[in-house]
Amino acid sequence: MPYSRPTSTVQCAGVTQHALVTATFSQRMRIRLDDGSEVTGRLKGKKIRPVCGDLVEARAIANEPEWLITKILPRRNELSRPDRRGRIEVLVANIDLVSVVAADAPAADWFIVDRYLAAAELMDVSALVVFNKSDLGAASESSETALADFAKIGYATVRCSAKTGDNLNELKRHLCEQTTIIVGQSGVGKSSLINYLIKDADQQTAELSRATGEGRHTTVNSMMWSFPEGGVVIDSPGVRDYAPAIESPDLVARGFREIDEHAPDCRFANCRHLREPDCAVKSAVEIGEISARRYESYRRLLALAQKLADNYN
Ligand SMILES: Nc1nc2c(ncn2[C@@H]2O[C@H](COP(=O)(O)OP(=O)(O)OP(=O)(O)O)[C@@H](O)[C@H]2O)c(=O)[nH]1
Ligand SMILES: [Mg+2]
Ligand SMILES: [Zn+2]
Question: HSE-up of 74 (CA within 13 Å, CB side)?
């Protein structure tokens, strides 16, 4: 991928053009222009906050190496989370696939995976579960169960290793020709997977880390990489926890496809599947049709969404 470092070349103020945000740093961002070159952009004022995947309007600034970003074009979708004050923080925009990575080291928190999957459902985009570090041996019992749960409800799952390259062709097959965000806990191997799949990503990350003075091994910014064959993948910083920003508790069930599927059979149309009588969801959990862990995940996210809604109102 062409990457031109900001230079001290004198530039004339240019006409506004569309650009793609390929990386965000605290004050600056990397944007890709129509001709494929990449330049550093900064914001005009603080009213807009572009994220990786955004299409923006930008123009060259006379006698400065940086470009000025003036506007964000309408987004197709947003992956977001509530910030500490309960406001919505957008992480990336305009994506086609949420690829959630987990591993047995560090031990997987499957509730986090469920929440990313819920975010994908609510955004109406596809999702994929990647179980990395297969070279470490057989998966733990809890991971086996969780992976089987996901497969049962129709999510694609890929077991692979960024260390040995095992099954990475299969992973690549899922990622090509679209815009994917790779998410998951810190240390599960998100960047390693991208480095394996995109040969010069490691070197470019190192260069950017030097340029920005930021660490190399832990990803601190979202960053987009392109496959030569088409398609892009966004590496994102690992999380300790994640929850989607959900406008109303009523929407939480939509984030769990197997719960959403059973909900029409509940006695009450507005059943929250907690203590209501004749709840088809709870019946399905009791007979093992719906995974008890996924149901617990739903209850936890519902409680969180309720808390956020109460704080907000
Ligand atoms: N054994 C084994 N180790 C791996 C594999 N993939 C990554 N690692 C190691 O796991 C550690 C974390 O890898 P990263 O790629 O930095 O993980 P990350 O998910 O990008 O982490 P953050 O950027 O902090 O979110 C590194 O020491 C990698 O060498 C794998 O498939 N097998
Ligand atoms: Mg990383
Ligand atoms: Zn119900």
Answer: 1
Q: Is the CB of 161 under 6 A from ligand 1?
A: yes
Residue with tokens 């029409």: 264
Closest CA relative to residue 1, chosen from 16, 17, 19, 22: 22
- Residue owning the nearest CA to atom 8 of ligand 1: 189
pLDDT at residue number 205? 60
Averaged over 32-38, what is the pLDDT? 92
Q: Mutual orientation of helices 110-123 and 141-152 as an angle, nearest 10°?
A: 20
Query: Which band of pLDDT confidence, cut at 50, 70 and 90, is reported for residue 221?
Result: confident
All structural domains of the chain: 17-72 (2.40.50.140), 78-235 (3.40.50.300), 249-312 (1.10.40.50)
Q: Residue 288 phi/psi, 5° resolution? A: 80, 10
pLDDT at 312 over 60: yes
Q: Computed from CA positions of residues 146, 147, 149, 154, in that sequence, does the dihedral angle turn out positive or negative?
A: positive
Higher pLDDT, 305 or 200: 305
The one-letter amino acid at 9: T
Ligand 3 centroid–CA 263 distance in Å is: 6
Ligand with the closest atom to the CA of 135: 1
Alpha carbons 89 and 30: distance in angstroms, whole number: 20
Output Rg (C-alpha) for the chain, integer angstroms.
Answer: 21
